[in-house]
């Protein structure tokens, strides 16, 4: 029986599972250095606009963390939204065809109701990324 290789999800997603161990260590060192430098650059470039430099660094660090947190939260549901937008047309089409079958069975009230609800649902799902962007802009302006 053949052995199954188990790969960590993070390694699989970033492609490092294919790299030799020596390259992984070098990549980790470079990545750590870049992260440390990236975290220090905003602090080093800030000017002392407050009473003391310590307050300025703390305030700018707080703003950087708040901005990053807002970005992560604002785009956390983007994959789910994209999936819903992608499957909305087939689902709305099936519901509308089902509504047409209600006409055949003589239930025109139910037919019109299901067709209009499917159309409105489709439009709202297609416009949901726009609604999310508008809410994000409103949140940034406040």
Low-confidence stretches: none
Number of helices: 5
How many structural domains are formed by the residues?
Answer: 2
The CA-CA distance between the termini, in Å, is 62 Å
**What order do the SSEs take from the amino end to the carboxyl end, as H and E?**
HHHHH
Description:
Helix 4 packs antiparallel against helix 5 (108-141). 80% of the residues lie in helices and 0% in strands. The chain is mainly α.
Task: Detail the topology: elements first, then pairings.
Layout: H1 9-14, H2 21-45, H3 53-74, H4 78-104, H5 108-141
Task: Sum this structure up briefly.
With 142 residues, the chain is mostly helical.
Name its key features.
single chain, 142 residues, mainly alpha, 2 domains, 5 helices, 0% strand
